[in-house]
Design a protein that fits this description.
single chain, alpha/beta, Rossmann fold, 6-stranded mixed β-sheet, 18 helices, 26% strand, binds adenosine-5'-triphosphate, binds magnesium ion
Length: 492
């Protein structure tokens, strides 16, 4: 039903798409894979008419277009859930769902809410149509995006990494939605870096590498290893890097911290340790990190660094005490999108290139260059604005920014969100290297394998409180899920 012929898109310094040919069959779930910067999102934007190609055509059945407009794309039944959320925060869930459509203008609030409620109920999403979108968590916002797209009676629904901010429960919910839509005859193009999802839901899978089309396979005829090889161009080991943890001195003690929807949080963090925070979305993992890192204010409780009580009222205070945060929402909280890669990378490490308040631009660029290489950030120039980078490469810049600051205690909130398989390994190695230098890491992740593979110890939260702690010999998916749903893990 959809055929792309020789689609080409050139940005200054990069050929984002190089004569890509691809066809999508009616009613299938077609997965699109590729490393960060391979051109997946660009391809989607061309189909949706959000950007214009430099060559090639887009055909729907026998209708051939050299240029797409958002209007034509919509008329052809294309609906897109973009990689970065596009919601209007001051508006309600219902208003967002119907934004830009006649219902949004013609109907009363009451009718709009009722309509939105119907959609939410139909797909089993627990959300109030009257809630302000700005007050929702990223995962809940993602659900609103999904509603917005599916309520449009799409013929082709394109999802660009819809699960990157979802935990397993919501992913199941989304997969039910996909199954339902597929049964109704909707064609789905699905982008994800989580390969197990691709095997679970897709019929066929296409791979892009460096802007070029590699191949399309029946999902049933391929395996993980082959796909990784097609994407990365080499074999990758699956294993998490091995470490032998020797607990060092206690760097951070958090005692009875409450506020920001969490209550009575106490834990210790040691030099050289990677502590995992697990739990369902909204259980208080991010909220705890925000309190310790000064992004939100605590109502009560205390924090000690190196045994000394400290007062943290802002991120600046936290950084001064050697505590940093890599936030979950990179677009809103992690970087300044219109500023350059250099500016963002060196945002909090001014000691490295600044003397008596004077910036040494050469040194500053050198720092940025060093982290660009260490994290293999794909960008033609360090002067490029972060907003022009692919999603995964933006995430790498946010990680680079915190790493460059040489902080002793770092909270990573979903550090591999949107990061491809190869780059994930690079980030794991960097986190491990930090730990082996004696730094202390807290890692928040909804990726079960990742949290089990990386952590020395795991704290599981449930409804804003610590539900339990697991040591390495108790590590299992089952134990995490048990604690995460508010039940007790039976003693071994
Ligand atoms: N507006 C832009 N200006 C300049 N370069 C751009 C722009 N948009 C994308 N690019 C470049 O085009 C290439 C492809 O980017 P794209 O976002 O399509 O990658 P992707 O496959 O979606 O990656 P990811 O998995 O990281 O989301 C990248 O090198 C990116 O830097
Ligand atoms: Mg992308």
């Amino acid at each position: 039903m959809l055929k792309l012929m020789n689609l080409t898109k050139i940005y200054p310094g990069v050929k984002a798409l190089d004569a890509v040919c691809l066809s999508v069959k009616d009613g299938e779930v077609h997965a699109l894979l590729g490393e960060n910067g391979a051109g997946k999102s660009t391809l989607i934007k061309l189909i949706a008419g959000a950007v214009q190609p430099d060559g090639g055509t887009i055909c729907f059945d026998d209708r051939v277009y050299e240029r797409m407009t958002p209007q034509t794309a919509r008329e052809e039944g294309v609906a897109v859930i973009y990689q970065e959320l596009n919601l209007c925060e001051p508006l309600t869930v219902a208003e967002n769902i119907f934004l830009g459509r006649p219902q949004g203008r013609l109907y009363s609030q009451k009718k709009l809410n009722a309509l939105a409620q119907e959609i939410l109920d139909e797909y089993g999403f627990v959300l109030s149509p009257k809630a302000r979108v700005g007050d929702l968590s990223p995962a809940q916002q993602q659900l609103v995006e999904i509603c917005k797209a599916i309520s449009n009676e799409a013929k082709i629904l394109i999802m660009d990494e819809p699960t990157s901010s979802l935990a397993s429960q919501e992913v199941t919910l989304l997969f039910n939605v996909i199954a339902k839509l597929k049964a109704e005859g909707v064609t789905i193009i699905y982008i994800s870096h989580r390969l197990d999802e691709v095997f679970e839901i897709s019929d066929r899978v296409s791979v892009l590498r460096d802007g070029q089309y590699v191949t399309t396979l029946n999902t049933a005829d391929t395996d993980r290893q082959q796909l990784v090889k097609l994407m990365v161009g080499r074999e990758l080991s699956d294993a998490y890097p091995q470490r032998t943890w020797k607990p060092g001195v206690c760097l951070l003690q958090v005692e009875h911290l409450s506020g920001n929807s969490v209550e009575d949080i106490s834990f210790e963090l040691h030099a050289g340790e990677i502590l995992g925070f697990a739990g369902l979305v909204g259980c208080g993992r991010t909220e705890t990190a925000q309190l310790v890192c000064g992004a939100k204010k605590a109502d009560s409780g205390s924090i000690r660094v190196h045994g000394k009580p400290v007062k943290i009222h802002s991120p600046v205070d936290a950084i001064a005490h050697g505590i940093g945060l890599i936030p979950e929402d990179r677009k809103e909280q992690g970087c300044i999108q219109f500023a350059s890669v250099t500016f963002n990378t060196t945002l909090i490490c001014k000691d490295k290139f600044c003397t008596y308040g004077v910036i040494n631009e050469k040194k500053r660029r050198a720092v940025a260059q060093q982290y660009k290489e260490a994290l293999n950030i794909k960008v033609p120039s360090l002067n490029q604005a972060v907003i022009n980078l692919s999603g995964g490469n933006q995430q790498k810049v946010v990680v680079a920014k915190t790493m460059a600051a040489d902080l002793e205690i770092v909270f990573f909130d979903e550090p591999t969100k949107g990061i491809d398989v190869g780059a994930k390994q690079e980030i794991y190695q960097l986190i491990n290297a930090m730990a082996s230098e004696g730094k202390a890491i807290v890692m928040i992740s909804s990726d079960m394998e990742e949290i089990l593979g990386m952590s020395d110890r795991i704290i599981v939260l449930y409804e804003g409180r610590i539900a339990g702690e697991l040591s390495r010999d108790q590590f299992s998916q089952e134990n995490i899920l048990t604690l995460a749903s508010g039940m007790e893990v039976s003693a071994k």
